[in-house]
Amino acid sequence: MLTERAAALDAADPLAHVRARFLLPEGVAYLDGNSLGALPAAVPAVVEDAVHRQWGTDLIRSWNGNGWWEAPTRTGDALGRLIGAAPGQTVVGDSTSVQLFNTLLAAARMRPGRRLLLTDPDHFPTDQYIADSVARLLGLDVRRVPAREAAAVLAAEAGDVAVAAYAPVDYRTGELYDMAALTAAAHAAGALMHWDLCHAAGALPVELDAVEADFAVGCGYKYLSGGPGAPAFAYVARRHLPDFDHPLTGWHGHAEPFAMAGTYTPGADISRARISTPPLLSLLALEAALTAFDGVEMTDVREKNLSLTGFFQECADELLDGLGFTMATPRDPDRRGSQVALRHSEAYPLVAALTARGVIGDMRAPDLLRFGFNALYVTHADVLHAVRELLAVVTDGDHQSPEFRQRPTVT
Asked: Is 317 considered catalytic here?
């Protein structure tokens, strides 16, 4: 029955043709695109050209002749389409941590006299570390409030909160929060809303302009499939650009960078969010990767991701019942992002043994098996195969082998 359901769902998939835009290894069901996206077919040729012709032959002339200088804003606008941002508000370059620090500190400085910075105790660790760092620099207090309680705290502390910094998707469980409601709650309190879109960009129809978000950041290597170490993006709402006081005033953000002035004058537009020379090879790879979304509507991506995650839950319910697994991801589609997490006391060895069988997911301490679903290349057949292989691992006892119980540095 599950086999027929998977086949029927895949046959009706309007995004089935997009899978051919990726170079997927034979015999692998890749369900870890929420950590590192699969390789888009458009990327290798672009990187080869960037290395051999643009760098190797054209050399420094590529800044003008091959559009290197405009790449951060050009790629930012292409990416902006996927996160509901009109052109001129998104820039790409630097790492997620750098973008997070810059935008969060700038946001906090835009609310002088307010002492609180709210963030989620379940936020990704870097987000929490950066929040603490920003607070130390500005003399603020960080209050860790779960996303589901943030609106009430914002209302109670209306005069004191400078910035609320959250993610729409819990990176561990895949739980989805209401961006519009939390942004509105922040604004009602006079605070600014800062979003981390690492687990949403490319997976959900994020509408930054529509929900009136203030700032957002996100990486380029998860659902956007920009490659390992792909540069991150920063979004600054157009209404905030005149007051955006960038903490790292590098020369690429100057109004006239090649005037080589000794004092800083910020650019008039999103270019002021630039710092210095971006990692061009990675940036051009990301730009090429984004072409995988050409002609793709994010509403269709969302519909398929819900189908994939729902089908995974259905398969897990039927095949893994009584084997020590519990569902950590909400069943309600409105509360589910694009991943499913299962709890099990043997999470790490199970994932390791599953990977050896060609089904790649990952785990998060202490007990979560995570499976990410990129609608552009994952099929329902992949989902069913993954759950069947997980069942085989448990019933065969593969995970009891010592080789799967020794943890490497990266888990």
From this structure: no
